[in-house]
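Sanity check

After download, print the first record. It should look like this:
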Amino acid sequence: MTSSFDLAIVGSGFAGSLLALIARRIGCSVLLLERGRHPRFAIGESASPLAGVLIEQLADRYDLPRIRPLASYGTWQRACPEVACGLKRGFTYFKHDAGRRYAMRSDRANQLLVAASPCDELSDTHWFRADVDHFLVKEACGAGVEFLDMTTLSDLEWDADGAPILCGVREGRTVRASARFVVDATGPRGFLSRALRLDAPGFDGYPPTQALYSHFTDVARCDGMTDFDVDGAPPFPLDEAALHHVFDGGWMWVLRFGNGVISAGIAVTDALASELRLSEGAGAWERFLGRHPSIAGQFADARAIREFTWMPRVAYQASAAAGPRWALLPSAAAFVDPLFSTGIPMTLLGIERLAALLERDDGNPDRRSLDDYSRTTLHEAEHTARFVAGCYAGFPAFDRFTAYSMLYFAAASFSEMMRRLGKVPPGFLCAADVRFADDLARLSPANAPPLDLTDVAAVVDRINIAGLCDPSKRNWYDVDLEDPIRGAAKLDASPDTVRAMLRQLMPVSTTWSP
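Expected C-alpha cells:
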C-alpha cells in the first residue's frame, strides 16, 4: 500500500480511534494503524467524572452522538449494553499491614471512601478496553477512516517538504504512507518515541515502580467478607468503585466489569518488587497474597484468565510531546501511575487540545502551537507525578495519605464543575494554578512535612466545592449537591446558576429537590 493522508494515527486504542473520528468530522483524510487485531487486551480501564464531561463536550462539539452515551453508566447501559463496562461510584481505599487481617478501625482511619457521583445513572465507569476500543475502531471505520491492523512500522522518513512517511509491513506486504501530520497514540515508549529517538528523562523525585496485573474471574466482593465489615451505611457499595488495597511500598487495584471479569494488579516500589520477585508473574502474585491475608481471602477462588503482565518500569516521560508535523498524545508522551485514574482524563484533554489545533490550522498545526501543546502535556504529567510520589511516601502513615489525597479530589471536583458551567479550569489537577501547584509540592509527604487534614483544608478551601477535608465525616465522603451550590462563588457563578445546572444534570427519578 502506498497512499497519502492528511493525518496518520499510530495506535487504535480508544484515544487513537476517537481522535480519528474527530479528524474525519473536521474534514481530514485519516489513516489509523494498529500493530494487533481487535478485540484485544489493553490496560488503562478506569474513568472519572472529568473524563465523562470531556466525552460529552467532545461528542457535542464534533457531532458524535454515538460516542456521547459513554460519558456515564446510565446512558452507556441503555445505548451500548453490548460494550462491557463496570459501575464506578467512587474511590475505595483500605490500608493493610503485612501479615495481619484487615479490620476497620472505629475512627475509620485505615480506610477512605470518596464518592464521585450521586447515583448509578450519572456514575463513572470502568472500561473493558477490549470492547471499548473495538467499538470505537468500528465507529472510526464507519466514518471513513482508513484502518490497517496487523501492521508493524519500522521506519519514519520525511519527504522533500518535511512531511512524515511511515514505513512498515502488513502481513508480508510493504506499507508506505505519507501524511501531512502524524500522531502517536500507542502508549509509553511508542513508535514515534523510538523513531525520533526521544530522550526519556523520567520524573524528578519519583520512586521507581513496577507493576504486575491480569484479568480474573470469581474475585470475592469486599462487602461480602467479614474482614471488610463496616459500621454504618457507606456512601456507596464498597466494590462498585475503583477499589484500592494500600500497603507499605505500593497498592493494588480491583476493578469490576459487568461481564464478570475483574481487572486486578499491583504497583510497587522496586524494593518490594525485588522481594516479591515480580518478574516471575504468577509466583510473585502468590507471594504477594501470602503477605496480606484479607486480600488473599478476596482472591481465594479467583482464576486468572490471561497471562500475568509484568511492567519492569511503570512511570515514563518523553523529552518532548510534539514537534514539526508530529505529536504524542498524553498517553504516549508520559505515564505516571493508575492510582487516581488519571490516564483516561489526561488523554482526553490531549485529544481535545490536538483536535482544536487540527481544526484551527487546517490539519497541520504550526510550530508555536505544538510547542505550547508539548509544554502543557509534559507539565501536567510532571505535576501529576509529583502528587503520586507524595502519595507513595504517605502510604506507611495512612493518615498522611488520606489528607494529601484531598488535593486531588478537590481539584478534580472543581474542574468537573467548572466545565459543566462552561468555564475553563486551570489545567489537569489545577496544574496551571501556580499557587495550587506550589502548595501541592510543599505539602507532599515525600518532603516529610508534618501534615494533617487541617493543613490541606486551608490550601484547598478556595477550590473545595465538594465538602472535603471534614474530620467529622471520618474518611467517608458522599456527594452532597448542596456543596457546590454553597461554593458557587468559588466557581465564579451564582448559587442559582449552579442550582440550575445541577437540576438539568440530575435524572428525573432523583429525590433531590434543589
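If your output differs, re-run the checksum step. Summary of this record's structure: The longest strand covers residues 173-184.
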